[in-house]
Design brief:
The structure holds 3 protein chains of 3 kinds. Chain A contains 25 helices and 6 strands. By secondary structure, chain A is an all-alpha fold. Chain A folds into 2 domains: 9-246 and 281-293, no CATH class; 324-600, Orthogonal Bundle (ABC transporter involved in vitamin B12 uptake, BtuC). In chain A, helix 1 packs across helix 9 (219-232), helix 2 runs antiparallel to helix 3 and helix 14 runs parallel beside helix 19. The termini of chain A are far apart. Chain B has 10 helices and 11 strands. A 7-stranded mixed sheet of chain B has the order 1-11-10-4-9-8-7, with helices on both faces. In chain B, strands 3-2-5-6 form a 4-stranded antiparallel sheet, with helices on one face. In chain B, strand 8, helix 7 (196-211) and strand 9 form a beta-alpha-beta unit. Chain C is of the alpha/beta class. Chain C contains 12 helices and 10 strands. In chain C, the strands form 2 sheets. A 6-stranded mixed sheet of chain C has the order 6-7-8-3-9-10, sandwiched between helices. Chain C has a 4-stranded antiparallel sheet with strand order 2-1-4-5, with helices on one face. The longest helix of chain C is centred in the middle third of the chain and has 17 residues, at 135-151. The chains are: A mainly alpha, B alpha/beta, C alpha/beta. At the A-C interface, helix 19, helix 20, helix 21 and helix 22 of A face helix 1, helix 2, helix 3, helix 4 and helix 5 of C.
Chain lengths: 626, 267, 281
């Protein structure tokens, strides 16, 4: 009993922080119609700035925290002005991808500036603990609870009692009507991003207090939890966001108290998927038509549900087609590469790039052709890699690679269907959240299912693949592996282009272009979304198996969200749905960053910047989307 | 019978054309030769319209005739490809809609568009947003006046607007615009989707606003209700002004029936 | 003795946030019949289509197609049973070619379901997409798609390789009709097919719709249309809606001269004056 009450109080404390994140999501979602993936990163930046001012510069903690909060608010506002507002007229997916890119850039910059290590966060109070009836509560928990409540109360008062606060809410509810009341909606939008940054800064400081430390990779889990809280409350309602945050905090505290803290994040991700699946409108909202592109689409207001369509532009330039002779030339060059490569390191790098190219093809089919942008592909890829690694190390070291690929692909297809199962009923930006959570769940399973995956240690000493059709030749030389990857890539390209060109591919594109018109024409949209995830998952699994053989040792750390992000950047760079673009994007980006390995720390920032630049200046990619 | 040339403007009383249609210096709205496009689709074709100080002008027409676009033009919510728009003496080309509102315009949008998750009181305060510098006491008094003018809001000040019925929401939208103290009031389809009882109430309220000296530009499908309160009217068909003139002269004229129901309705 | 109706709608209702968009609508439609649904803005005509077609779940009521209940089915299942529709604001697949767009309309015939027998296994569908084997079925579907595109003369067929968003506004509406027709619907729902068209285009499309309904004697058609001239030409029966309810139904000339209809459009007093001038009954 004592334990339970203490857990609940502790959960309410961190729940306050989630509530703040959720308010940020709700406000931004209202005025900009956008899920801001950078919201969690603003928390991280806020926390680190406070740490810098307090610990490194020795300022008093209160002053340090205030400065950090003010700077984070400015950062939130600046991100909108510099990157998001210019994209309002672009494809609908552009602002979303931009916030993803900004999240990665912020997280990675934090790592570069403050190092990837966990930093001790100064504690504002001595570690006193009081007994409260039957329960225990620490002074820090009380401080978090108090600050959180004060912030939320101030914000609520501002939004409900001041002219500008009301105008912000009116803009979030109905920008066009707000404009007709004389409200400058653009200014309200800036203010909203500023407020989102502000609560981000405060939240970051509080998270620091809560864990008594901060680390750079906490942005993504925090962002997902904030989104989960907002979703629980019906994404659009501020009181809902607060309730959602507190509920999530309590739920998580209870789960980690009774199941073990290793499940802490996993619980939140599973909860997110469950809410998305069972009650996507949240506990209080009612948005039954969102899966079909929203009530507006059903009413005819939105002419298409395609993420690549922009509200202001009708026709788009055609994609660039690769002439056959160029393709043949490239293939010939690729096939003979080991013969004229300067050394075998290059062969290894390019071989690895070909493995990534298969993964990119897999993603471009589901995200481009079928229009279901997945950021969970690293998880699916990992499933393929683990299946291949475990089978060949533990059960059948001489298993023919053909069979390995088939099994790894099938496992990937299953994982894909699992991720797609939750995404299939959803639309647009929410799919990204769902697949992100699915990918993280797969990653968490790799981490906690120790008897099978060996947990954080991973699987090593993966034997070289054995080629069955050549009578069991062991492919252990670099150029043999390279040729295997090239052959599989060629086969994958052939298969993918045939499927895309078939009736199935046409139906995928119809679902992407206008889901409402598609279902009215008799297209079972969910079936085709699942088929796309299955097909894409199969290819990702195949790529994962090759990856395992290439690197010979894998661990959960190989399948972080960042890998999903990296592949998304490759695919967007090449043009969504463009197979050639995916392959060239993979080769160029992987090869270039491998060459720049000396600057390894800057690699992910580079990806973020490239993605952001492509979105800003060439949203349909270098070769055009299809 | 008037001439049948489909897109020519018919002045219902040709001898009054100059008196009715020549723009004056103190006109509240002047729309001259305006073409409006939505993408490739042209919604308005070289339309002219003026609203004099103190006048109530109705824009009539069937579905998709372009009448709502007319009001959006006056509010700066759509930008004409050609032609000019002046509101309260100022050309509004390139002006954001919130700045047009700032000139002294109040708007009752189509479909009411009340702020559903705000209370009735907050909705009224949003109506007075541009007057936020004024004394609190003044605004409080005017909220009381708004309740007098729209008694259905009585006792529901803290109710969420989204929980009101359609008719009540329309009254709230009107009260909200009234809180603006506008020098020009734009009303878009006030009777749309309302029961006959509420249509009567809405028109009583419009007549009351008019009696208080409001200048009104309204768009309406239900023609003869609008003609009862209007001084002058323009009838649109497929983006063209086809008939115009004094409301009294237009009421019951077959030209209106033709504009709504098509040529054969006259036969 | 009358045959069982193609579509029987009874007591259909839907409320949106306190507004009764469709409020107990009942009517029926015989096989091969074309009716028009008219009424002022906000009368509930488009919502009626969304309910029949399954895009919006109904609060109450029933809609039976040849005896099969449609309410409660997903839109794709309704389509597979033989209901084709177009949208009020055109919804083409922007990035698909005209040809591909029309082929999408044949999906139920391609993959089964509804009146097309068993739905194909998705895994088998993926695998056979690598080696399409049913050449006979493909030829039949291609021929039907071509025939439907040819209906529109040189408006669509010569442009069949172009993207749908390169089409003019009027051609997009034509494409939508083609996409609905190619599924050989037993019930065709046309939501304001001539909206945004100029008088010449309107006349041309109305003539085409008239020809199509004549050539397909078993297909029933419901037309939501504001241009009453078009209604008179195409429909032998008109259902007038106002405030979510059926006001009156009957032959066009009779119904459109009905005082209640004139009232719905012009308001009560307007109708009285029209009557005084001998323009209404």
């Amino acid at each position: 009993m004592t334990d339970l009450l203490s857990q609940i109080l502790n959960g309410l404390a961190i729940g306050n922080v989630y509530a703040m994140l959720a308010i940020g999501f709700v406000l931004v979602f209202g005025v900009a119609n956008l899920i801001n993936f950078a919201q969690g990163s603003l928390f991280v930046v806020g926390g680190y700035l406070a740490y810098t001012f307090a610990v490194l510069l020795g300022l008093p903690l209160a002053l340090a925290a205030s400065l950090a909060v003010a700077l984070t608010a400015l950062l939130g506002l600046g991100i909108d002005r510099a990157f998001l507002r210019p994209l309002e007229r672009g494809p609908r997916i552009a602002p979303l991808l931009a916030t993803l890119a900004i999240a990665v850039i912020l997280d990675e910059t934090v790592q570069l500036v403050w190092s990837p290590d966990t930093k001790p966060f100064p504690s504002p109070l001595a570690s006193t603990t009081w007994q409260l009836g039957n329960a225990y509560i620490s002074a820090v928990d009380l401080l978090i609870l108090g600050t959180g409540i004060a912030t939320i109360a101030t914000l609520t008062l501002f939004l409900s009692r001041t002219w500008i606060g009301r105008a912000v809410r009116a803009t979030a509810m109905d920008p066009e009507a707000a404009q007709q009341m004389g409200v400058n909606v653009a200014a309200m939008r800036s203010l909203t991003f500023g407020i989102a940054g502000l609560v981000g800064g405060i939240g970051g400081v509080l998270v620091g207090f809560y864990y008594q430390s901060i680390w750079p990779t906490m942005g993504i889990p925090l962002g997902i939890k904030g989104f989960t809280a907002a979703l629980l409350g019906g994404i659009g309602s501020i009181p809902g966001a607060i309730v959602g945050g507190l509920l999530l905090g309590v739920f998580e505290a209870l789960a980690s108290g009774y199941l073990g803290s290793i499940y802490r994040n996993l619980i939140a991700y599973v909860l997110l998927l469950l809410v998305l699946f069972l009650r996507p409108q949240g506990l209080f909202g009612s948005r039954g038509l969102d899966a079909l592109g929203g009530a507006q689409a059903a009413g005819g207001a939105v002419p298409t549900t395609s993420l690549m369509a922009s509200p202001f532009q009708t026709a788009e330039p055609p994609a660039i087609t690769t002439p056959w002779w160029l393709a043949a030339l490239l293939l010939a060059a690729a096939a003979t590469f080991p013969l004229w490569a300067p050394d075998s390191t290059w062969v290894h790098i390019l071989g690895l790039a070909l493995v990534y190219a298969i993964l990119a093809v897999s993603l471009t089919v589901v995200a481009g052709t079928a229009g279901q942008v997945s950021v969970g592909h690293a998880g699916i890829w990992g499933v393929g890699a683990y299946v291949a690694a475990i089978l060949t190390t533990r059960y059948w070291p001489g298993m023919p690679i053909e069979l390995t690929l088939l099994l790894a692909g099938s496992a990937g297809a299953l994982a894909g269907v699992l991720a797609g199962f939750f995404a299939a009923r959803l639309s647009g930006h929410v799919i990204v959240m769902a697949t992100l959570a699915a990918g993280l769940i797969l990653y968490s399973v790799m981490l906690v299912w120790i008897p099978v995956t060996r947990g954080p240690m991973g699987v090593f000493a993966i034997p070289p693949p054995v080629l069955g059709i050549l009578g069991g030749v062991e492919l252990w030389r670099t150029e043999q592996l390279y040729w295997l990857a090239l052959a599989v890539l060629a086969l994958v390209l052939l298969v993918a282009s045939r499927v895309i060109g078939s009736d199935v591919g046409r139906l995928w594109r119809a679902v992407r272009e206008d889901r409402l018109a598609a279902v009215a024409s008799g297209v079972p949209a969910i079936r085709y979304v699942l088929m796309a995830f299955a097909f894409s998952g199969f290819l990702a699994g195949v790529s994962g198996a090759l990856y395992a053989h290439f690197v010979t040792a894998i661990s959960p750390g190989s399948f972080l969200v960042l890998v999903s992000f990296q592949i998304l950047a490759i695919v967007v760079l090449g043009g969504l749905g463009n197979l050639t673009g995916a392959v060239l994007g993979a080769i160029v980006l992987i090869a270039v960053t491998e060459v720049l390995r000396g600057f390894g720390d800057y690699r992910m920032v580079t990806y973020g910047v490239i993605l952001l630049a492509v979105i800003m200046f060439r949203p349909r990619g270098l070769l055009g989307s299809r | 019978m008037h001439q049948i040339d489909e897109w020519a403007v018919t002045d219902i009383e040709p001898d009054r054309r100059d008196a009715n249609e020549t723009p004056r210096a103190d006109d509240v709205v002047v729309i001259e030769g305006v073409d409006i496009y939505y993408g490739a689709v042209q919604a308005l074709f070289a339309v002219d319209l003026r609203v004099g100080a103190g006048e109530t002008v109705a824009v009539l027409g069937g579905n998709a005739s372009g009448k709502s676009t007319m009001i959006k033009t006056a509010l700066g919510m759509v930008q004409p490809r050609t032609g000019a728009v002046r509101v309260l003496g100022r050309p509004i080309a390139g002006l954001e809609p919130y700045r047009v509102i700032g000139l002294g315009v109040g708007s009752i949008p189509e479909g009411r568009r009340v702020f559903a998750e705000m209370s009735v009181r907050e909705n009224l305060l949003m109506g007075a947003f541009v007057r936020r510098q004024e004394a609190k006491a003044t605004l409080a008094r005017e909220i009381d006046e708004a309740i007098e003018l729209f008694p259905v809001l009585q006792g529901r000040m803290s109710q969420l607007a989204g929980t009101l019925s359609g008719g009540e929401q329309q009254m709230l939208a009107m009260a909200r615009a009234w809180m603006r103290k506008p020098r020009l009031l734009c009303i878009d389809e006030p009777s749309m989707g309302l029961s006959p009882l509420y249509v009567d109430r809405v028109y009583e309220a419009i007549a009351a606003l008019k009696a208080r000296g409001a200048t009104i530009l309204m768009v309406e499908q239900s023609a003869n209700r609008a003609l009862e309160v209007a001084d002058r009217a323009y009838v649109l068909r497929s983006g063209h002004v086809v008939v115009r003139g004094r409301a009294a002269a237009l009421a019951g004229d077959p030209a209106i029936r033709r504009a709504y129901l098509g040529e054969r309705a006259i036969a | 003795m009358t045959a069982a109706p193609r579509l029987a709608v009874t007591g259909l209702a839907k409320t949106f946030g306190g507004l009764k968009a469709v409020d107990g609508v009942s009517f029926s439609l015989a096989a091969g019949e074309t009716i028009a649904v008219v009424g002022p803005n906000g009368a509930g005509k488009s919502t009626l289509f969304q309910l029949v077609n399954g895009v919006i779940p109904a609060d109450a009521g029933s809609a039976r197609l040849d005896g099969t209940e449609l309410i409660g089915l997903e839109p794709e299942a309704v389509a597979a049973l033989g209901v084709g529709r177009t949208f009020q604001t055109s919804r083409v697949f922007p990035a698909l070619s005209i040809w591909d767009s029309v082929r999408i309309g044949q999906t139920p015939a391609l993959i089964g379901g509804g009146r097309h027998g068993r739905r194909r296994n998705p895994l088998a569908e993926l695998l056979t997409s690598l080696w399409p084997h049913d050449k006979q079925q493909r030829r039949v579907l291609d021929a039907k798609a071509e025939a439907v595109l040819q209906l529109f003369g040189d408006r669509l067929w010569p442009r069949r390789r172009d993207r749908a968003d390169s089409l003019s506004y009027a051609n997009r509406r034509r494409l939508e009709i083609a996409r609905a027709l190619v599924g050989e619907p037993s019930l065709l729902l046309l939501d304001e097919p001539t909206a945004g068209m100029n008088p010449t285009e309107t006349t041309e499309l109305a003539e085409l719709i008239g020809r199509i309904t004549e050539e397909r004697p078993s297909m029933s058609t419901i037309l939501v249309e504001h241009k009453l001239d078009v209604v008179r030409n195409l429909a032998r029966r008109v259902v007038v809606m106002d405030n979510g309810q059926v006001l009156v139904e009957g032959p066009p000339d009779e119904v459109l001269a009905d005082l209640r209809v004139v009232e719905a459009y012009l308001g009560k007093r307007g109708a009285e004056e029209a009557r005084a001038m001998g323009l209404a009954p």
